[in-house]
Amino acid sequence: MLLFMAIVLPILFAIFIPLAYRSIKSIHTGWFVLLAPVLLFLFYLRFLSPVQQGEAQLARVSWVPSLDFYFDIHIDGLSLLFSLLITGIGSLVVLYSIFYLDKTKEKLGNFYVYLLLFMSAMLGVVQFDHTLALYFFWELTSISSFLLIAYWYKRDASRFGALKSMMITVSGGLMMLVGFLTLYVLTGTYSIRETIAQVDTIVTEPLFTVAVVLVLLGAFTKSAQFPFYIWLPDAMEAPTPVSAYLHSATMVKAGLYLVARFTPVFAYSEVWVWLVTGIGLLTLFWGSLFAVKQTDLKGILAFSTVSQLGLIMSLLGLGGFAYLVTGDAVETFTFATFAAIFHLFNHATFKGSLFMVAGIVDHETGTRDIRKLGGLMGLMPVTFTIAMIGSLSMAGLPPFNGFLSKEMFLEAVLGLLHADISTMTVAYLVPIVAWVASVFTFIYSIYFVWYTFMGSRKEEQLPKVPHEAPIGMLISPAILGSLVILVFFIPNVIGDWLVKPATAAIQSTAFTSAADIEFYIKAWHGWTSPALWMTVGVVVVGFLLYKVLPKWQPIYSKWPERFTLNRGYDSLMDGSLTWNRALSDRFMTGSIRDYLVYMFAGMAILGITTLFTQGGFAITTEGLAPIRLFEIVLTIILVGSVMAILITWSRLTAVIALGGVGYTVALFYVIFKAPDLALTQLVIETISVALFLTAFYHLPKLDKHYKGKEDNRFRLGNFLISVAVGLTVTLIGISAYAQRQMTSISEYYKETVYTEAGGGNIVNVILVDYRGFDTLFEIGVLMIASIGIISMITLRLQKKKKGATVDEIE
Amino acid sequence: MKSNDLILQTSTRVVFFIIFLFSIHIFFAGHYTPGGGFVGGLLMASAIVLLLLAYDFKTVKEVLPFNYLAMTAIGMLIALTTAAGSLVFNVPFFTHWYDYFDIPLLGKTSIHTAMFFDIGVYLVVVGITLTIIEMIGGDN
After folding, report:
1. Any transmembrane segments, and where (chain B) (predicted)?
2. Which of A103, A457, B2, B130 has the fewest Cβ atoms nearer than 10 Å?
3. What is the C-alpha to C-alpha distance for residues A377 and A366, in angstroms, rounded to an integer?
4. Chain centroid offset of residue A810 CA
5. Sign of the CA dihedral with B43 first, then B44, B47, and B52 last
6. What ipTM score was computed for the predicted complex, to two decimals?
7. d(Cα A700, Cα A703) in Å, to the nearest integer?
């Protein structure tokens, strides 16, 4: 319960934030908010030691037990690492936002409520063992992220970015939900741990691959992998603390968490490992390539986030190979997982600080456009230092933590070559792609710092006079920056306490506990290490390419606009609207005649196909009554009247012919021995013909209104459909008669009409006694009809009195 | 438009009562021979329509000062009460009951609760038919 309370603590906090915002104006609301993540961070720190010993924390809160829905909490190394990142960076971001967002100008109540909502959601995602509970909080992250991106909702770009991220992440989330349900179908449990226990039995099922792909779609959309990354650059319209928190350190890592969490289940599938590795590498390459094109500080960082997420994703994919191989190769691939988790941690530190730097630059100069910036080093020395640390770490240079994880990454991709699994020649591409992507990573990291802080000052282009940021704004990035350096010098502390328990959770077959893992992070691998020479190559080639950057950067503008993914998204969104509108305009014509055509055509087609495909058609001559002269004569009159209705041009003729039909039917009742029906039919027919005549007396003349329109002309389609409907009904009638399954219950009525009901007229006794219920409601129907007529006529009269014209009423 | 409809009006005075009695007859005979509340009601309504044709709305209203909407409602109420009355005797909804009685003048007669239900139907049918005709015809 305490663990559950910890997850929802931010939401509970969020309830009081608007109160604090309204009533306490003198203190920045952020200071109250800060309490929640700090408390939680300290709370989760307590678990470090037990989790490292392999004692997972478990808790259960029931929600819908009858549907097997529990909030099952399971904190192992992986969940703990994420929880600490969420609360730790959360604290720093809240601290930063206190100085970033103005107390008087911004709606702080909204901001912190959304942020706390997001924090709870994220903690839920990484701690729940129950897939539906995970999905629940997963969507909560999408929603809170949507709210945060559109925080400045009066800007068009904010709303566009929010909608885009919502559409992409939620559609992925729905795919993931289907994947989870597929898993439930396979295993009968929603628990991830129990699914892992059953993995042997489900891995051969065909549905397993379906679940793999669907869950991966969820992870890829959330973690901004290719080709779903397009929402992330647009999400940069959010306030910078949000970008730093959601779009670099936490939410985008939810997809990575999902991949890591499900590795013990899905890594047995080759589809999974190759997809994760392949898409990861593609994203890494693509993101780094296009980061250099950006001119917006946050744009560069967004693409670099995409690229780095791809890197981690590909490492997680490589780690999945550990489940497919045996022997020494297992160690090679588990090392990839280790590297992935380490880089995940490192990325959160340096990317968080870089976003905060971008925010400071924006805040102090008024622009994030890299073309207007330059020469800020002397003006903002502290910011510059932090930016330098973050960028060089991102580029993978010593003495920063990025160097360690980048080396490990290169080693891991090289490991793919040594393993037996790499029979596919495509495996040789992997290190090359990784290396090229690293070169571009180096270029954009340098590009980011140099263009902002070096070169000549262009103060006249800046909206504000630049100066160093206030100390409070610098605290958070400074802490993250110091972590970047600190981790380089004592990497194994992080490795032992955070990375190894997480790796043990992912590689649950290779390691039973964190103590089994013997990897040791070291900065120096010796001269023979290929990763070292690859890094040297990255630096040399990257530096040379950076020097000639202005020469080749224009190449990007040569890329045709038509083939960009954003254009694809836009045309999909616009297209789905226009296509749907065009489609519905086509068949929703507004004409009742058309709708009747659909209904009758559907009825005829369904009726006839069902009748013949299901073998329902039958015809019999058995038990038919002999045909009498009366009937033949009456039928001829009936058909004649009906034809008259169809072909006549005069309404009066049609009404009279309809009356003829009615009286003929009454005569049929007479010869078929139904006196009650005949009586009623005669009277009703008379009244309805009189009403028809009343109605038509008031109608405009046909010729006057329809002259030239030929509205009564013969339509072949209508003719065919009406013939088909008539045929359908006739055939069904014949078949039904031929296949009577049981005798009628009328014998019962005949026998009991006098003894039970004390009557002689069966029809009337049925109406008032046996089935009086029907009659009761039929007179109800009549009553409603008369009330309807009253209201229609009197309301019309009242409106007329008020001076409205007839056209307005109609 | 007032024309001299003397023949029509005079014959209507006679024919009205014939139709009226026929309607009553068809109503009461309904349980044993063709007829019943529905046809009886329609016939009664047509008798009044005949009056309407021969005279005019105002005259008929003076002679037969009924509120037809109220008549519909009363008929519905009678029908419902008959159906629901069985509940009082702890039998299912719509259970009818009948017996024979020696009534002075009429002799041995059966009284059937279905008749009360039929009276409800009769009143509803008369009520709605005349409401509709009054509504449409009176709209001038």
Report:
1. 12-32, 38-57, 69-91, 111-133
2. B2
3. 16
4. 44
5. negative
6. 0.90
7. 9
User: One-letter amino acid identity for A256?
Assistant: L
Q: What share of chain A is helix, strand, coil (3-state, %, to 5)?
A: 75, 0, 20
Nearest to A64 by CA among A209, A190, A235: A190
Cis peptide before A399 (omega within 30 of 0): yes
Scored b (16 or more CB within 10 A) or e, A165-174 reads bbbbbbebbb
**Do the chains contact at B83 and A776, CB–CB below 8 Å?**
yes
Give the pair of three-digit tokens for residue A122: 């994220």
| Secondary structure of residue B112 in the 3-state scheme | strand
Contacts of B128 in chain A (CB under 8 A): 782-783, 785-786
Q: What is the CA radius of gyration of chain B?
A: 18
Asked if A97 and A64 touch (Cβ cutoff 8 Å), the reply is no
Q: Which amino acid is at A55?
A: E
Q: Is the model's pLDDT at A369 over the cut of 70? A: yes
CA-CA distance, A147 to A499, in Å (whole number)?
32
User: Comparing C-alpha atoms, which of A78, A90, A10, A11 is closest to residue A47?
Assistant: A78
SS3 of A542-575: the string is HHHHHHCHHHHCCHHHHCCHHHCHHHHHHHHHHH
Tell me the chain B residues in contact with residue A684 when contact means C-beta distances shorter than 8 Å. 42
What mean pLDDT comes out for the span A478-500? Answer: 88
Q: Which residues pair with B111 in a beta bridge?
A: B99
What are the chain B neighbours of A755 within 8 Å (beta carbons)?
A: none
The angle subtended at Cα A177 by Cα A173 and Cα A182, nearest 5°, is 145
Structural tokens at position A147: 């709210």
| Measured distance CA(B25)–CA(B41) in Å, rounded | 11
DSSP code per residue over A33-85: HHHHHHHHHHHHHTTHHHHHTT--EEEEEEEEGGGTEEEEEEE-HHHHHHHHH
Instruction: Report the percentage of chain A scoring pLDDT > 90.
Output: 36
Cα dihedral: A375, A376, A381, A383 (round 10):
-130
Chain A to chain B, count of Cβ pairs less than 8 Å apart?
122
CA distance A678 to A670: 6
DSSP β-bridge partners for residue A128: A73
Tell me the CA distances in angstroms from A462 to A249, A361, A466, B21, one per residue in order: 30, 11, 8, 104
- C-beta atoms surrounding A625 within 10 Å: 7
Task: Give the mean pLDDT of A685-700.
Answer: 79
Cβ(A542)–Cβ(A446) under 8 Å?
yes
Closest CB to B121: pick one of A679, A779, A793. Answer: A779
Q: Which of A768, A782, A783 sits opposite B118 (nearest CB)?
A: A768
Q: What is the mean pLDDT of residues A197-224?
A: 89
pTM of the model: 0.81
More confident residue, A507 or A512: A507
- pLDDT value, residue A710: 47
- Around Cβ A759, how many Cβ atoms within 10 Å? 24
Residue with tokens 């990142």: A85
pLDDT digit string, tens, across residues A522-557 = 766 666 677 788 888 888 998 888 888 888 777 777
Task: Map residue A139 onto helix, strand or coil.
Answer: helix
User: What φ, ψ does residue A425 adopt, rounded to 5°?
Assistant: -65, -20
- Spatial contact of A291 and A391, defined as CB atoms under 8 Å apart: no
Pairwise CA distance, residues B71 & B126, whole Å: 8
Kind and range of the H or E run holding B101: strand B98-103
CA nearest to B47 within chain A: A683
Residue A708 has pLDDT above 60, yes or no: no
pLDDT at position A804 over 70: no
* Selected residue of A786, A789, A796, A801 to mutate for chain B interface (largest B Cβ count, 10 A): A786
Confidence of residue A721 (pLDDT cuts 50, 70, 90): very high
Q: Are A402 and A392 in contact (CB under 8 A)?
A: yes
Q: Which residues lie across from B112 on neighbouring strands?
A: B98
